[in-house]
Amino acid sequence: QAYNIHVNGVLHCRVRYSQLLGLHEQLRKEYGANVVPAFPPKKIFTLTPAEVEQRREQLEKYMQAVRQDPMLGGSETFNSFLRKAQQETQQIPTEEVVLEVLLSNGQKVKVTILTSDQTEDVLEAVASKLDLPDDLVGYFSLFLVRETTDGGFSFVRKLQEFELPYVSVTSLHNPEFRIILRKSYWDSSYDDDVMEHRVGLNLLYAQTVSDIEHGWILVNKEQHRQLKSLQEKVSKKEFIRLAQTLKYYGYLKFDPCITDFPEKGCHVVVSAGNNELNFQVRLPNEQIKEGSFKVTRMRCWRVTSSVPMSNGPAGSSPGKSEVKLELAFEYLMSKDRLQWVTITSPQAIMLSICLQSMVDELMVKKSGGSIRKMFRRRANGALRRSDSQQAVKSPPLLDSPDASREPMAKLSSKLTSVSLRGMSHSSSNNEVGANDFHGNYAFEGIGDEDL
């Protein structure tokens, strides 16, 4: 009996009970039996269909509990298990390959890597090919994007530590999917660190130019003229300094989608940046309204997905079974009024990863940490979880995942919901179990004067 593991709504790998049991035993050996959740017991006889389903639910619960424990979920044992399983499922042998990574200006960086290299290794290979100094590597990340017909691109997700970038991109069998290198911090004061170095400056400059050309950063005629003249003089630093003053600088812009705020079915363009989600909403009367939701006023959020039932053996269903993804957050509208706001978008995962990293960055700042420290690696090459993990208190584990929802993982797990489910029925959107979402610990610092 093989189980599909979906991570962030995407089929990540297929695993057998015995493989999961092996992972469980290894985790117990490393962390002790009192830390690791209980594992569904072995059965001597063949399982009945009802028992198979019961075991699947237990395994799903187990995987979520492990993923959401900051120590276990961040462990090399767990992440390398997921990477290995991803590679085996996609049947990609370990060998040397050339991977193409895009820069914002369309330039392609070709790196020679192993198919089994994890995200961190690939990022370092790209950095070393570009001569980006080690202490700046942590300011950048690799993103999976989909090229659009107009030459732009749409964000799918930030590549995570439990995946192999080469396998992730090739297993999609679609040349529109690419890997791009972009800065991965939100506070533009960090630009100063990056601009100290020639390569950092060039990368930041290319990204800023590209974001202006895509219309992601708003520019009026006069600003456009000033930017043009700085570009002609190749005054990159001054160009970036001027861009920093413009609207939506440092924001990620998402594809048009649907929201239920201020009323159901409104079309919206969401941008993430400056510790907020910015909404440009088109109301039913065609009027455009703009407003922002501050991350610090979101009490919690969750990502949910529903997948249509696919019959027949795995692989036979057409790749077009569209997963419907939603990001919902509970927002402090006024002193004692909380309201849920929902965004229905294929990019819901990417949105949640953005919220996550904004909160992480806020928490690191609050605890006096620095972004440099946040990304420093240990000498043995294992990635230490960022300092934000210490700053973020862990919410309780999920009890039982509500069958109609992909549960939202807690903050410290980078919002990665792991599910062993090929599908999930989405029932009425209001049925949400109490354990379905987790708190945002940047929210606790809010005082009345912030409102």
TrEMBL record:
It comes from Cuculus canorus. The keyword Acetylation does not apply. One of its GO terms (cellular component) is cytoplasmic vesicle membrane. Belongs to the sorting nexin family. Residues 95-186 form the Ras-associating domain. Gene3D superfamilies: 1.20.80.60, Phosphatidylinositol 3-kinase Catalytic Subunit, Chain A, domain 1, Phox-like domain, Pleckstrin-homology domain (PH domain)/Phosphotyrosine-binding domain (PTB). It is a peripheral membrane protein. It holds the Pfam family SNX17-27-31_F1_FERM. Keywords: Cytoplasm, Cytoplasmic vesicle, Endosome, Lipid-binding, Membrane, Protein transport, Transport. This is Sorting nexin-17. Residues 1-89 form the PX domain. It is found in: Cytoplasmic vesicle membrane; Early endosome. Its main location: membrane. Coiled coil: none annotated. InterPro entries: PH-like_dom_sf (IPR011993), PX_dom (IPR001683), PX_dom_sf (IPR036871), RA_dom (IPR000159), SNX17-31_FERM_F1 (IPR048763), SNX17-31_FERM_F2 (IPR048767), SNX17/31_FERM (IPR040842), SNX17_FERM-like_dom (IPR037836). Critical regulator of endosomal recycling of numerous surface proteins, including integrins, signaling receptor and channels. Binds to NPxY sequences in the cytoplasmic tails of target cargos. Associates with retriever and CCC complexes to prevent lysosomal degradation and promote cell surface recycling of numerous cargos such as integrins ITGB1, ITGB5 and their associated alpha subunits. Also required for maintenance of normal cell surface levels of APP and LRP1. Interacts with membranes containing phosphatidylinositol 3-phosphate (PtdIns(3P)). GO terms for molecular function: phosphatidylinositol binding. GO terms for biological process: endocytic recycling; intracellular protein transport; signal transduction. Residues 379-411 are annotated as: Disordered.
